[in-house]
Design goal:
Elements (H helix, E strand, L loop, with lengths): L4 E6 L4 H11 L10 E6 L5 H13 L5 E7 L2 H4 L5 E4 L11 H22 L5 E4 L4 H10 L9 E3 L2 H15 L6 E2 L2 E3 L7 E3 L4 E4 L2 E4 H5 L2 H5 L1 H7 L1 H9 L5 H16 L7 E6 L12 E9 L2 E4 L7 H25 L2
Parallel strand pairs: 1-2, 1-4, 2-3, 4-5, 5-6
Antiparallel strand pairs: 7-10, 8-9, 10-11, 12-13, 13-14
The structure holds nicotinamide-adenine-dinucleotide and 2-acetamido-2-deoxy-beta-D-glucopyranose (2 copies).
Catalytic activity: (S)-2-hydroxyglutarate + NAD(+) = 2-oxoglutarate + NADH + H(+); (S)-malate + NAD(+) = oxaloacetate + NADH + H(+)
GO molecular function, one term: L-malate dehydrogenase (NAD+) activity
Family: Belongs to the LDH/MDH superfamily. MDH type 2 family.
């Protein structure tokens, strides 16, 4: 067995973490032979709840889990990290302006970025989940200048999994028979779920999604809005936001960073754009199709983009540019 790795989950007393921690602690993410020290950060009023989560993790009697450290202090939480999953953020409260919400989140991710810079390993892999995930991730990366920007990513895998599953259900195949859907842009209702490069395995043969689904109107209309609005639909039904599926997507995302994507398959991740092949503005965390090998991701190159896709990719980029500029104006104050 190798030495334990140190993995931080923030927002650890919350509902996503409640599903996520078990997956990590039993080896779904970093491998079945990788011992883990789990560090759980939340805010001071949540410490009693966190104690309950620690008790349950102990009661799971998991062989890979070497230690659990609950804390409300960043200097404890970010020390010597190998991986950081930043789930906690400021939620929208009744009557709160969008700007004030963004300002509160900039403050959180600025201080957590600075803590990564100061205390974590320089090779730390950082995944931002707390919304607005793309911009929070950008702020954290900018606040940690000694850690490569490539080591920061934000979660759009839930949207990716939702899109794959919609296509799979429509074709009557299992979810793993669908590959290479793409989520472009922001994790919001302007995201663009793109199936122009998606393949569906139908009876052992891989065919383009448009041929497998045989309903272009659905793929260009209701499919896109269903994926864009899925989070809202879950909230309406459950009276709570997606948690089990978000936790599963976080596991998928981090596992792919750790162990790589399989040959011919790509996944969607919000990553730092700089000189990307698709003309997306630089200096954004934007969701792209990526392949991962040796713990490094690469944006999939050479995909053809038609006018329909172009317009949607540009719209979601414009939203992120605006949000970035507002967020950066808060950084200096
Ligand atoms: N990117 C995605 O695909 C995706 C999907 C689902 C949810 N989300 C987002 O994930 C976040 C968490 O969702 P949830 O359902 O677990 O929420 P939740 O409210 O159940 O839990 C959030 C936890 O974060 C904690 N927290 C707040 N500020 C913190 C800070 N500064 N440091 C540490 N902890 C802090 C809270 O105390 C709370 O325990 C939300 O922002 C949600 O919008 C993102
Ligand atoms: C981008 O997506 C996030 C997450 O859903 C959302 O909170 C934010 O408002 C979006 N940005 C803009 C500018 O709409
Ligand atoms: C995922 C990723 O890009 N990881 C990189 C993090 O930074 C180290 C250097 O500190 C690189 O070697 C990794 O490839």
């Amino acid at each position: 067995m190798s030495d334990p790795i140190r993995v931080l989950v923030t927002g650890a007393a919350g509902q996503i973490a409640y599903s996520l921690l078990y997956g990590i602690a039993k080896g779904d993410v970093f491998g079945k032979d990788q011992p883990i020290i789990l560090i759980l950060l939340d805010i001071p009023p949540m410490l009693p709840v966190l104690d309950g989560v620690v008790m349950e993790l102990q009661d799971c009697a998991l062989p890979l889990l070497k230690e659990v450290i609950p804390t409300d202090k960043v200097e404890v939480a970010f020390k010597d990290l190998d991986a950081a999953i930043l789930v906690g953020s400021m939620p929208r409260k009744e009557g709160m302006e969008r700007k004030d919400l963004l300002k509160a989140n900039v403050a959180i991710f600025k201080s957590q970025g600075a803590a990564l810079d100061k205390y974590a390993k320089k090779t730390v892999k950082v995944l931002v989940v707390g919304n607005p995930a793309n911009t929070n991730c950008l702020i954290a990366a900018k606040s940690a200048p000694s850690i490569p920007k490539e080591n920061f990513s934000c979660l759009t895998r839930l949207d990716h999994n939702r899109a794959s599953s919609q296509v799979a259900m429509r074709c009557g195949v299992s979810a793993n028979s669908v590959k290479n859907v793409i989520i472009w842009g922001n994790h919001s209702s302007t995201q663009y779920p793109d199936v122009h490069h998606c393949l569906v395995n139908v009876g052992g043969k891989e065919v383009p999604a448009f041929d497998a689904v045989k309903d272009d109107n659905w793929l260009k209309g209701d499919f896109i809005s269903a994926v864009q609005q899925r989070g809202a639909a879950v909230i309406k039904a459950r009276k709570l936001s997606s948690a089990m599926s978000a936790a599963k997507a976080i596991c998928d995302h981090m596992r792919d960073i750790w162990t790589g994507t399989s040959e011919g398959r790509f996944v969607s991740m919000g990553v730092y754009s700089t000189g990307n092949p698709y003309g997306v503005p630089d200096d954004l965390i934007y969701s792209f199709p990526v392949e991962i090998k040796d713990k490094s991701w690469k944006i999939v190159d050479g995909l053809t983009i038609n006018d329909f896709s172009r317009a949607k990719m540009d719209a979601t980029a414009a939203e992120l540019v605006e949000e970035r500029d507002t967020a950066i104006s808060f950084l200096s104050v």
